[in-house]
Design goal:
The protein has 247 residues and is an alpha/beta fold. It contains 9 helices and 10 strands. The longest helix is centred in the C-terminal third of the chain and has 18 residues, at 185-202. Bound molecules: adenosine-5'-diphosphate and magnesium ion. Adenosine-5'-diphosphate (ADP) binds next to β1, β2 and α2.
Length: 247
């Protein structure tokens, strides 16, 4: 799966093509992204790294159709997100993309199980599609905590539930914005191992933001950003992956 030559032959899961993003607040303009080009292939596990404010979250929001770029194109599979209706975009977001954020954003009045089951219901695709909530709880090692509310779970456990919720409908792509940002090193490790397992055993396509090099090392590919731009050319990135596997 991590062979770079094989990966290049796969279909693209997300394409970011000549993307610029400008935020305007009053008279202030912020160039959050400047000509970003990225192709993440199906089954890839990529990490986006870079200092605070360099545009990582903006990039992830555009990839997930939560925002639209000022210029350029974002494609999910072969669908251009700009070329479809709001309703269709919402549908793609719901069916094809799972989000995980630094803050777990679980519903506090629902149990762990119900947080996951609700995501499944909202998707409305029926029981045969995706994971059974019980099954995914056990993948996360949390079947014994299924009746706990978020306040009765540790940060690491809450994040595992948030990941379970994000992938219960087997989305094509999992987008994670600093998923270990609020966790200690022990819990970060558990989350990373889970993401790696999802990647290796279920072929889950993952794009994860982090500013921790050790965390990024869990991914097969590192996309370095500075000041709204991607530093490395795609070819270099594949080269870097090849190097990594030789050592
Ligand atoms: N909604 C917004 N309105 C105005 N400026 C924003 C908004 N979101 C982000 N920015 C600005 O865009 C730049 C990139 O932000 P962001 O994508 O959040 O970076 P990162 O996730 O790498 O920290 C920053 O200068 C930030 O202040
Ligand atoms: Mg951010």
């Amino acid at each position: 799966m991590s062979n770079p030559v094989d990966i290049r032959k796969r279909d693209s899961a997300i394409t970011v093509d000549g993307v610029y993003m400008v935020y305007r607040v009053g008279h202030m303009e912020t160039q959050a992204l400047r000509d970003v080009n990225i192709c993440l292939r199906e089954g890839e596990f990529g990490a986006v790294m870079g200092p605070s404010g360099c545009g990582k979250s903006t990039l992830l929001h555009l990839m997930g159709g939560l925002q639209s770029p000022t210029r350029g194109r974002v494609m999910i599979g072969s669908t251009n997100l700009a070329g479809i209706s709001d309703a269709k975009r919402t549908e793609i977001r719901r069916d094809k993309i799972g989000f995980v954020f630094q803050r777990y954003n679980l519903l506090s009045t629902l149990t762990a199980y119900d947080n996951i089951a609700l995501a499944k219901e909202i998707c409305g695709k029926g029981d045969e599609h995706g994971f059974d909530p019980k099954e995914i709880l056990s993948v996360m090692g949390l079947e014994h905590k299924s009746h706990h509310k978020p306040s009765e779970l540790s940060g690491g456990e809450q994040q595992r539930i948030a990941i379970a919720r994000a992938i219960v409908n087997r989305p094509k792509i999992l987008l994670a914005d600093e998923p270990t940002g609020s966790l200690d090193s022990e819990n970060s490790k558990v989350i990373l191992e889970l993401l790696q397992e999802l990647h290796q055993h279920y072929g889950q396509t993952i794009l994860m933001i982090t500013h921790d090099p050790e965390v990024a090392g869990a991914a097969g590919r590192i996309i370095e950003m500075r000041d709204g731009r991607v530093l490395d050319k795609v070819e270099n990135l594949f080269y870097a992956v090849e190097q990594k596997h030789q050592h």
